Amino acid sequence: MKLRPYFFVVATLAAIGLAVAPQLIVGAPREATMGLVYKIFFYHVPVATTTFIATFVCAWGSVLFLFKRSEKGDQLAVSAAELTVLFGLLTLVTGPLWARKAWGVWWQWDVRLTTTVLLWFIFIAYLFARKYGGPGARRLCAGLALFGAADVPLIYFSVSIWRTIHPKATVVSGIVRSRNGMGMPLLFGFIAMVCLFLALLEMRVALERARVRVDELHLEAEDAGLEN
Which of 80, 79, 81, 94 has the alpha carbon at shortest distance from 48? Predict the structure, then answer.
């Protein structure tokens, strides 16, 4: 596995961010209506945003594979797909922690929640199809990635299009613009999560490239009669 130098930069920034962000979150003031429970936003919003970024990275790699037959694009796509599942799971865990206090239930079939679950299942299907889909699996998965990317705008704009109990995007923008100490923890959390994603993506792509090379060496060894 060969890691590019920028990996160490983003990994360091992620480590610093994950160490500093909790202290900023603890020191942030309580929100007037939601009280202490609103602080889950400082994790939930960054991991949700990172899920969307991972989805688009996977879609971009899939486009490169579909239209340019780029093996590097395919390696990027499968690596980002796994991270979409990981950060998507974190989104689906942190959201209900807030909902239980705010709504009195762990889950509601709200449009934004439902479309987010749909996104997560699309990428679960991506990973299963990738492993068990046979010779055409990579093209099938590329199509799934594009379908998942099309779901992201629906998730984002759902709170504006339909009547929904999920907080609107203006809640987050209000926190970012606030001058009472709420904006900095959210910004730090976002930077930390994005840097963590970039570091994990670099590691996963390097691992995928090493796996492909090992498979190629096995085939070469078989052709040369070195394997039984």
Answer: 94
